[in-house]
C-alpha cells in the first residue's frame, strides 16, 4: 500500500524528507508570543517541560527567552534533531533528543510538569492505524507527566473529533481554550471570537462549544489536559 498526502504525516521518512528540503524554521498553527498568555497561565516557570514533535519551530526558543529554564524537545526526525542541535550548539541548555513520542522509555515516569504538543497528535492521527498510535502516544504522555502536570494540546481538531480520544485514552481533567487561526498575523484583531485566557464552557459531548462560539469557528483549539490524581 502506498502512503500519500497527509497520510504520511505519521511517518518518520516523510518528516526527514521534508526537513532536508525545508531547513528554515517554521511554526505550525501559532507562534510562541500569541500562545504565551496560556502557557504562562498553566505552566509555572520552575517546571521541567517537554515539547513533543518540536520540529524546527522557534516555539521552545520563545519559552526559554520568556524565562522557562528546563525545556526538553523531542522529535522522530533525526534530520531535524541534528539540525536543531547544530543551530543551538552554543546554547547547551537547548536540549534536542531524537525520540518517538509513542515510546519515551528513556524518560522515567513522572519526569515533566508540562508537555506541549503543537501539531504532533494531529500528525499521528493522519497516518495508518492512527487511533492505535494516538492512544499509545497519549498513554506515554500521561506516564511521563508528574501528578497534576498538564498536557497542552494545540490542534485544529474540534471537540467532536478530539474529546472522545482524549477521554478514552486516560482520565484527564480537560479545559478548553481557543485562539483565532490568524492570531499570529493579525495584530489589529482586537475583537476575537473568544478571549484567549477564558476557558470555553465544555460539556460531555462538546456541544456547549458550538453554543459559545457558533458553528465552525475559525480557531485553533487548545486542550489543557491535567493528570489530576483524585
Ligand atoms: C505538524 S509538525 C509540528 C512541528 C512543531 N511542533 C510546530 O509547532 O511547528 C509535527 C511534528 O511531529 C513530529 N512527529 C511525527 N510523529 C512523531 C512521533 N511519533 N514522535 C515524535 N515526533 C513525531 C514530526 O517530525 C514533526 O516535526
Automatic annotation (TrEMBL):
GO terms for biological process: methylation. The keyword Magnesium does not apply. One of its GO terms (molecular function) is S-adenosylmethionine-dependent methyltransferase activity. The keyword Transferase applies. Keywords: Methyltransferase, Transferase. Residues 51-152 form the Methyltransferase type domain. InterPro entries: Lys/N-term_MeTrsfase_sf (IPR051419), Methyltransf_11 (IPR013216), SAM-dependent_MTases_sf (IPR029063). Belongs to the methyltransferase superfamily. This is Methyltransferase type 11 domain-containing protein. It comes from Lupinus angustifolius. The lineage of its organism: Eukaryota, Viridiplantae, Streptophyta, Embryophyta, Tracheophyta.
Amino acid at each position: 500500500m502506498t502512503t500519500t498526502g497527509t497520510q504520511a504525516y505519521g511517518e518518520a521518512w516523510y518528516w526527514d524528507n521534508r526537513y532536508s528540503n525545508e531547513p528554515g524554521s517554521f511554526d505550525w498553527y501559532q507562534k510562541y508570543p500569541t500562545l504565551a498568555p496560556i502557557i504562562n497561565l498553566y505552566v509555572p516557570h520552575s517546571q521541567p517541560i517537554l515539547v513533543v514533535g518540536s520540529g524546527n519551530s522557534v516555539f521552545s526558543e520563545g519559552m526559554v527567552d520568556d524565562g522557562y529554564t528546563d525545556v526538553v524537545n523531542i522529535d522522530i526526525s533525526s534530520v531535524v534533531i541534528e539540525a536543531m542541535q547544530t543551530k543551538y550548539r552554543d546554547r547547551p541548555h537547548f536540549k534536542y533528543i531524537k525520540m518517538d513520542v509513542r515510546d519515551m522509555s528513556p524518560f522515567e515516569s513522572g519526569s515533566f510538569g508540562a508537555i506541549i504538543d503543537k501539531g504532533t497528535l494531529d500528525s499521528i492521527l493522519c497516518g495508518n492505524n492512527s487511533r492505535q498510535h494516538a492512544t499509545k502516544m497519549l498513554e506515554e504522555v500521561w506516564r511521563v507527566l508528574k501528578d497534576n502536570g498538564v498536557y497542552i494540546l494545540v490542534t485544529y481538531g474540534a471537540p467532536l473529533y478530539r474529546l472522545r480520544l482524549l477521554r478514552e485514552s486516560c482520565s484527564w481533567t480537560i479545559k478548553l481554550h481557543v485562539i483565532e487561526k490568524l492570531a499570529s498575523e493579525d495584530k489589529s484583531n482586537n475583537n476575537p471570537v473568544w478571549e484567549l485566557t477564558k476557558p470555553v464552557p465544555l460539556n460531555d459531548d462538546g456541544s456547549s462549544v458550538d453554543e459559545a462560539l457558533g458553528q465552525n469557528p475559525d480557531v485553533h483549539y487548545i486542550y489543557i489536559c491535567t493528570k489530576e490524581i483524585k
